[in-house]
Amino acid sequence: MTTFNPNYEKAEQEAYHVLEMLKIRILPIKMKPIIRMFKNLHLVTYDSFAKSNGLSFQEAVNTADSEDGALWYDSSTDTYILLYNNRIKNKKRVRFTLAHELGHYILKHNELTHKTIISRYSLAKNEYDCFEKEANYFAKRLLVPVPIIAQLIEFHDNQISSKDVEYIFNVNQTPSDFIINDLVKSQKHRHNPVKTTLSQQFYLYTWGIGNTRVCSACGCLNNKTSQYCRWCGKTLSAVPKLSLNYDFDKDWSNYNMAYNQIQVNEKSIALTCPNCGIDNTLQSVFCVHCGTWLQNVCTKLFLTDYLNMKSDKSSENYQVLNNISSEQGLYDGAKLLNLVIDAYSNGNPFASSNNTDLEFAPANARFCPNCGCITSFFLQDLLVPVENEQSQTVSDELPF
After folding, report:
1. Mean pLDDT of the 23-46 span
2. Is the Cα dihedral 85, 40, 133, 192 positive or negative?
3. Which single residue of 56, 130, 199, 350 could bond 4 by disulfide (Cβ 3.0 to 4.6 Å)?
4. pLDDT at 249
5. 381: region left, alpha or beta (phi > 0 left; psi from -120 to 50 alpha)
6. How far apart are CA 215 and CA 192, in angstroms?
7. Contact 310, 320 (CB under 8 A)
8. What is the largest CA-CA distance in the chain?
9. What's the predicted TM-score (pTM) here?
10. CB 80 within 8 A of CB 105
11. How far apart are CA 112 and CA 303, in angstroms?
12. What is the DSSP letter of 76?
């Protein structure tokens, strides 16, 4: 009797090759778009198959010889049909089935056996078991690539759980436990996953997941260490919401540049006055043309306090905050700075009247990431409320 041994190394290499070839760089891996990239591979649901062949749903299941899915091969046309049970409610199970059947396709199991369908009844048991193990291994490595897990661990302070894997890769607990156990074994034997082209391909994404967090209120990206959302000022959850479904090649620029970012230097001083458009060639704190305060800093003023001061006509800062203290009807940057310095002195024992002690804020921040107070750019209406900007569109939907 011929002995069949699963070639796990080949299954893993082929899985990574698919991701590299199609330049996939976002998690979780979306199966349907991948399958549709292969011209001779057609995706068909059990319902569609039953309807087109005049069968009941159960008859379609029986024909496929599986409750989950099957891969059919027509050698005369070199065409494949990947059938799957679209009535299964567990979408993670469906994703794994699609990855498993794609494994049979990539590893050419049908062609090797000259079989229309890989079935336990059409093959010897050891041959069938061998192909199933290879397809399972392909699916696990495709959906949860080891080099990517290694990067995530690196960016998460060497800590990641099976629950994290489930969430990030959108897989069931079994493959999550499998991959974690695999990594534990590798670490015990001091085997570090080799950095591959795949590692480089996903680097920005895994770095983004490890170094950013999402605001539950507005959905915008923030630095991992931030306590408050720089966009809307809401307190960020104590349990960081991972930044999934972001294409960091594009959205990282949104993180740093979106929402009318004003170009600044390393001290958060605007290179061009956002009010009058004059170049700030001297990198002055105030615009020499209109007097606008050109440095974005934390004002140590909470939004509610600012609004109260702005509406209180008896307040000495009423005119300053309502930009009516200058002849041009513009904000008086110098007076605003003095107001903020007072706020620092009153609320921050480490602050002084020296401008260099002010806490710089990112160019696009309406609120301080550390304390949630408004920034000087937001104070002067140089940055409008985030809800008035065009919302960053990020879909929560996870197609297969």
Report:
1. 94
2. negative
3. 130
4. 54
5. left
6. 34
7. no
8. 98
9. 0.67
10. yes
11. 68
12. T
